[in-house]
User: What shape does this take?
Amino acid sequence: MSINWFPGHMVKARREIEENIKLVDIAVILLDARAPFSCRNMELEKIARRKTVIYILNKTDLAFSAATREYKRRFKNEGYTAAGIDSISGKGSKEVLQVIQNAYQPHAEEMLRKGRRVRPARIMVMGVPNIGKSTFLNCLVGQKIAKTGAKPGITRGKQWIRVKDDIEFMDTPGLMWPKIGDEEQGLKLALLNIVGENAYQDYDVALYLIKVLIDKSLPVLQEKFKLKDLEKPLEAILADISRHRGHLLKGGEPDLETTSKVLLQEFRNGKLGRISLD
Ligand SMILES: Nc1nc2c(ncn2[C@@H]2O[C@H](COP(=O)(O)OP(=O)(O)O)[C@@H](O)[C@H]2O)c(=O)[nH]1
Ligand SMILES: [Mg+2]
Assistant: This one.
């Protein structure tokens, strides 16, 4: 399976995370609420666990609420802290800030115990490409964007973004790459736009999407594309969508390539409705 990550990038990303993690109290690991377990890289998470870890299920607006609750429960059962957020609307941001403050409490108590002044919690946001790291940061920072400047000596030129009085985010999120264990996980990540275009053919990902919609009995194929017969091969269903959309080649054959592209675009923009994949 070819993935557009080169070992050089991986080594650099890992080294960066190892360096930056030293500067924070808490690692916030962003996951996609639609497939939180599929977008993890346990190897990198092991590095993050040198600090307090919080899992944030982002893009909850695109996932089934019941599934998101269940995924959060699974993290909590394993002893982790987890919260959900829609970083576009900001729904869930209060809970996220609360969870961060709770997680920082033991650190603050330790500082007090040692007779030190309690400084703001320092946090690094981590996650795979397109998971929403920048959007998440913007969402929490909102209008109150205030770079607190480099702190010589300690931070080696890192910029910190202050959120409220007691939380500071490192302004450069930690980029993790996903680790792909099997074909289906790879297809999920391609569907969610986490692995790049070079890794998979749109056609294969679109067929996977159709399969998922049918397996989960989601009504979108019937309702949006007016398909009546789903008891046929996935390729034939994709061709039906092409015809419904008027995506036709010169000879009148369905233009499966165009339909695949459009279908994936619509899915990723949330236009085919909510979904949970894990
Ligand atoms: N619907 C939805 N889209 C989101 C959310 N968070 C981020 N996005 C979108 O996901 C894409 C990638 O976000 P970005 O912040 O650039 O991801 P990054 O690569 O991790 O920094 C963008 O198109 C965002 O608008 C969310 O909570 N809900
Ligand atoms: Mg970004």
User: Anything to note?
Assistant: The radius of gyration is 21 Å. Residues 7-175 form a domain with the Rossmann fold fold (CATH 3.40.50.300). The chain has two domains: 7-175, 201-268.
